[in-house]
Amino acid sequence: MIDIHCHILPGVDDGSADMKDSLNMAKKAVEAGITHIFATPHHLNEKYANVKMDIIDRVVRLNESLQQNNIPLAIHLGQEVRIHRDIFTSLENEEILTLNDNGTYLLLELPSGRVPTYTHEVIYELLLKGITPIIVHPERNKELIENHKLLFELVQEGALTQLTSGSIIGNFGKSIQSFSKKIIEHNLAHFIATDAHNIGSRGFTLQHAYGTITKAYGIERTFYFKENAEQLLKDQSPAVEKPVPFKKRILGIF
């Protein structure tokens, strides 16, 4: 399996603390059936700044350590970028790192409690530059939970989304789990990833999530998500199904 969102790089954010921690995470990932991981440290989320060249250097070193320790896991380039007004200045300054550094797909994080008013503009401008934003864990965003239609609009405008495996299996609570299911049912989800930060409470639950999806929606839906991750690894375009609009609320209930 391929995990497109993981905080496995040592000592750069709220994920792995050091190389020992990263190797332990890698072992757990392999045990969980994962063969490839995109290392996606936080960037410009008000706490952490991890620019492109630093990430590239750390990924090289982590891959060397994995080989030295005979851990069959490949780490690939990535970054989780918090949306901000100056994102295009960061792009010009070579601070931003797209997945595989191919200039095509970018993990984009929204603030947990809201969707900035300039989000539509950023998505539009990124697409003009040939970069497709993948909005990470939209199911955990307070404004999107309260306004499902807004997520539909963002996807209709060209953004893709990545759900967290822990959300699908209920690790973040029933409300987030329920919204995750709605996102899948309305063809608004394109990838599943762990967003793993450690080997404990924020670990590698991808297989569990895929099992849950298979049970609820059939094996074809699971193949869809797995194949989309493979497409990213190959620097190819993932499949995108036509989004289904949400029905209007009646008395606050769907």
Automatic annotation (TrEMBL):
<comment type="similarity">
    <text>Belongs to the metallo-dependent hydrolases superfamily. CpsB/CapC family.</text>
</comment>
<keyword id="KW-0378">Hydrolase</keyword>
<dbReference type="Pfam" id="PF19567">
    <property type="entry name" value="CpsB_CapC"/>
</dbReference>
<keyword id="KW-0904">Protein phosphatase</keyword>
<dbReference type="InterPro" id="IPR016667">
    <property type="entry name" value="Caps_polysacc_synth_CpsB/CapC"/>
</dbReference>
<dbReference type="InterPro" id="IPR016195">
    <property type="entry name" value="Pol/histidinol_Pase-like"/>
</dbReference>
<dbReference type="GO" id="GO:0004725">
    <property type="term" value="F:protein tyrosine phosphatase activity"/>
</dbReference>
<protein>
    <recommendedName>
        <fullName>Tyrosine-protein phosphatase</fullName>
        <ecNumber>3.1.3.48</ecNumber>
    </recommendedName>
</protein>
<dbReference type="GO" id="GO:0030145">
    <property type="term" value="F:manganese ion binding"/>
</dbReference>
